[in-house]
């Protein structure tokens, strides 16, 4: 099989892994080598679906001895199979890298022969890159559940980031759809990686040149919408993973139907994109905005509001805390204002050090007022001429994109039916105007 | 008597306008590149190395940020950048280092946006620039709005220390040349990109295939793609174009060219 076919097959089956970031580690280039890393991560291209392409994301092989029902590589699926040799893949990575196509490699694999054998093949690629080519760019490698601890440790010494996919949000779902995997076979390597990273950081304090173990940390991914797990369960799991396993990122992947099966959504089901989008927004709130999962969803509200993002939804339900004074509100509170992000909040802090801010000043420093204006005071006053009509407020809070997503004809009914006891547009408007 | 200043079109020359305006105790009516027709009486500012350094170092003493803003404001090539920078420097002398946080001031805010634009464009090109291996080294062609090579130099020389490469900025007629371990930015009027060899063609084809396959079907989102990766970069990207030089260049993208960067202080 020629390289073109191999690349096509092994990248096509890897692309459902959504993590593609190259972030988390800063590393300068070295004489005699090739490559460097930038902590914020670099995207080199954007695919037709709008997703960033930062890494060459491929499988070592798409042969697999397992039979996970949601996966195109499952044993029982009749599909073309192939494998890279370690030399081929290392060379391809370098050639793409020096042309500035990519930041590095994201290597994952089906299970060929055994978890240990697969792991060894992957390690060989990493050794070639780091050793022979003196490659200093980014490497993300997926740990193979069930592989020997010693092998996982070697992987971690060569990679920047490791991940173990949690796959499905609950043990039951896993049991039904991925019978060869178990919660413990996934959590075990995750725990191992966490411990090694922690141990490594104390080593680094003691010996400055201790080799680094997965310096960009570990991440995981789960599939959304293949099983009946609710947003509430998923968000709680996400928060627990951040806390317990010190993960850098949790990724969500809207389920794309790959086969007809009584345990899976029908083949013509659209991937729940809006739900995935809301989960990412909420995840962002957990990581950068100081929110706790329990503030966003609870037993009574197990699903996200389809019309407004989780932050707006929170604000609407906590109108007693608004409006806030731009010139004195603490940073944490500014961050909770709909329409104000981390950058805007920081700019406000910087600008108000030199003078009192009014609404024109806010605009000038680049704060978008479309949503924020309903929640802000400048020098004790709301913006001049703001007409607070119920319709206007609601329209201001619904972003165009969300509106389109929520309206997608195929998706809307199924999505909406997931939301029990969701406040209607009218309820929201009342709660808004009631406060203003 | 009201006077407009004319200068040689370099950042150094502009700093000398600042110098002259302070020694002559006057605020010029306008600052124009030499040769531009005007009704005003003009004062031709001479670019004197010592004056350049004096102004440049005085900015550095205020803060690195002030200095950096002036340099990047210059790189931004926005309309009327001379006047914007001149006014900013006057404010900087008046308020000191905190001038860069006075974002509600119109001049400061304009410069802030120009500075951000330059940084963003350099960042985007670090992402979207594509090299082709022409046998003797790597070549990339870019058509930025701003002068970005000085801001990209460090990134690429650090990343590819053992490569020989060249980045040609067609808009500003300059190029970054690198061979281990030396880098230089020089004015370049015209550059012939050699024909690609079979091996280069093969990698380009592989990358294009990879790019096509990477999109999840059923999730096309042209608006999102364009938002992240504006169309004006596509000409020179391997994903979309067969040759590294891209399609015939469009004149619409051409903006006022800057001076050669060797005229820059610091
Ligand atoms: S082990 Fe991985 S590759 Fe194999 S079937 Fe399961 S999910 Fe797919």
Total beta-strand segments of chain B: 8
> How would you write the strand order of the largest sheet of chain A?
3-4-5-6-7-8
Distance between the termini of chain B: 34 Å
Write down the secondary-structure element order of chain B.
EHEEHHHHEEHEEEHH
Largest sheet of chain A: 6 strands, parallel
Silhouette of chain A = globular
The radius of gyration of chain A is: 24 Å
Regarding CATH, which class of the largest domain in chain A? Alpha Beta
Number of domains of chain B: 3
Largest sheet of chain B: 5 strands, mixed
Going by helix content, strand content and strand pairing, the class of chain B is alpha/beta
Give me the secondary-structure topology.
The complex is a heterodimer of chains A (436) and B (266).
Chain A: H1 3-12, E1 45-46, E2 52-53, E3 55-59, H2 86-98, E4 104-108, H3 115-132, E5 138-142, H4 149-158, E6 161-163, H5 171-177, H6 183-206, E7 218-224, H7 231-245, E8 249-254, H8 273-288, H9 293-296, H10 310-316, E9 324-325, H11 331-334, H12 342-354, H13 359-364, H14 369-372, E10 376-377, H15 390-397, H16 400-407, H17 412-417, H18 425-435
Parallel strand pairs in A: 3-4, 4-5, 5-6, 6-7, 7-8, 9-10
Antiparallel strand pairs in A: 1-2
Chain B: E1 3-7, H1 11-23, E2 31-33, E3 41-44, H2 49-62, H3 64-75, H4 81-95, H5 106-128, E4 132-133, E5 138-142, H6 149-159, E6 165-169, E7 174-179, E8 182-187, H7 198-214, H8 222-228
Parallel strand pairs in B: 1-2, 1-3, 5-6
Antiparallel strand pairs in B: 4-5, 6-7, 7-8
Helix pairs in contact in B: 1-2, 1-4, 2-3, 3-4, 3-5, 4-5, 5-6
Iron/sulfur cluster (SF4) binds at residues 64, 66, 68, 71, 73-74, 110-111 of chain A.
């Amino acid at each position: 099989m020629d390289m073109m076919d191999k690349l096509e097959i092994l990248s096509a089956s890897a692309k459902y892994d959504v993590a593609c970031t190259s972030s988390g580690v800063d590393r300068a280039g070295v004489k005699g080598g090739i490559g460097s890393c930038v902590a914020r991560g670099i995207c080199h291209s954007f695919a037709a679906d709008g997703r960033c392409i930062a890494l060459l994301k491929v499988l070592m092989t798409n042969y697999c001895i397992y039979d996970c029902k949601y996966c195109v590589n499952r044993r029982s699926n009749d599909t073309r199979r192939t494998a890279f040799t370690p030399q081929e893949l290392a060379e391809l990575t370098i050639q793409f890298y020096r042309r500035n196509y990519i930041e590095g490699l994201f290597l994952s694999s089906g299970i060929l022969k055994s978890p240990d054998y697969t792991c060894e093949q992957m390690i060989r690629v990493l050794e070639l890159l780091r050793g022979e080519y003196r490659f200093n760019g980014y490497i993300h490698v997926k740990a193979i559940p069930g592989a020997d601890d010693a092998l996982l440790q070697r992987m971690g010494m060569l990679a920047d980031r490791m991940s173990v996919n949690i796959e499905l949000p609950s043990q039951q779902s896993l049991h039904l759809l991925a019978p060869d995997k178990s919660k413990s076979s996934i959590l075990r390597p995750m725990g191992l990686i966490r411990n090694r990273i922690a141990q490594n950081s104390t080593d680094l304090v003691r010996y400055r040149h201790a080799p680094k173990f997965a310096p960009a940390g570990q991440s995981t991914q789960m599939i959304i919408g293949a099983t009946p797990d609710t947003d509430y369960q998923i968000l709680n799991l996400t928060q627990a993973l951040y806390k317990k396993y010190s993960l850098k990122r949790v990724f969500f992947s809207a389920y794309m139907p790959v086969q007809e099966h009584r345990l899976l959504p029908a083949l013509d089901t659209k991937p729940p994109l809006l739900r995935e989008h809301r989960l990412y927004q909420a995840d962002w709130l957990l990581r950068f905005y100081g929110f706790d999962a329990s503030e966003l969803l609870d037993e009574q509200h197990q699903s996200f509001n389809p019309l407004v993002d989780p932050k707006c939804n929170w604000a609407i339900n906590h109108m007693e805390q608004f409006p806030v004074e731009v010139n004195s509100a603490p940073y944490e509170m500014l961050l909770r204002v709909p329409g104000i992000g981390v950058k805007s909040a920081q700019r406000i802090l910087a600008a108000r050090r030199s003078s009192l801010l009014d609404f024109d000043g806010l605009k000038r420093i680049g704060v978008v007022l479309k949503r924020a204006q309903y929640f802000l005071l400048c020098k004790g006053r709301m913006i001049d001429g703001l007409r607070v009509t119920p319709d206007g407020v609601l329209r201001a809070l619904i972003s165009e994109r969300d509106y389109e997503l929520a309206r997608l004809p195929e998706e809307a009914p199924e999505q909406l039916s997931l939301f029990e006891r969701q406040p209607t547009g009218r309820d929201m408007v009342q709660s808004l105007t009631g406060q203003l | 008597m009201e006077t407009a200043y004319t200068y040689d079109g370099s950042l150094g020359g502009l700093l000398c306008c600042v110098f002259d305006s302070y020694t002559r105790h006057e605020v010029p009516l306008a600052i124009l590149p030499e040769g531009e027709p005007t009704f005003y009486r003009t004062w031709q500012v001479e670019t004197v190395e010592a004056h350049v350094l004096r102004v440049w170092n005085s900015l550095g003493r205020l803060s690195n940020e002030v200095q950096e803003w002036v340099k990047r404001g210059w790189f931004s090539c926005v309309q009327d950048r001379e006047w914007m920078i001149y006014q900013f420097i006057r404010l900087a002398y008046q308020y000191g280092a905190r001038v860069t946080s006075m974002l509600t001031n119109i001049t400061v805010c304009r410069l802030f946006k120009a500075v951000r634009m330059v940084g963003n464009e350099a960042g985007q090109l670090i992402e979207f620039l594509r090299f082709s291996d022409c046998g003797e080294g790597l070549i990339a062609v870019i058509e930025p709005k701003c002068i970005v090579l000085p801001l990209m130099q460090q990134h690429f020389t650090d990343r590819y220390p053992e490569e020989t490469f060249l980045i040609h900025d067609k808009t500003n007629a300059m190029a970054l040349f690198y061979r281990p371990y030396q880098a230089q930015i020089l004015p370049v009027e015209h550059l012939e990109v050699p024909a690609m060899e079979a091996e280069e063609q093969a990698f380009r084809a592989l990358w294009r295939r990879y790019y096509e396959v990477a999109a999840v079907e059923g999730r096309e989102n042209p608006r999102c793609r364009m938002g992240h990766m504006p169309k004006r970069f596509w000409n020179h990207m391997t994903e979309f174009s067969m040759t590294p030089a891209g399609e015939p260049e469009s004149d619409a993208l051409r903006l006022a060219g800057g001076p050669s960067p060797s005229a820059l202080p610091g």
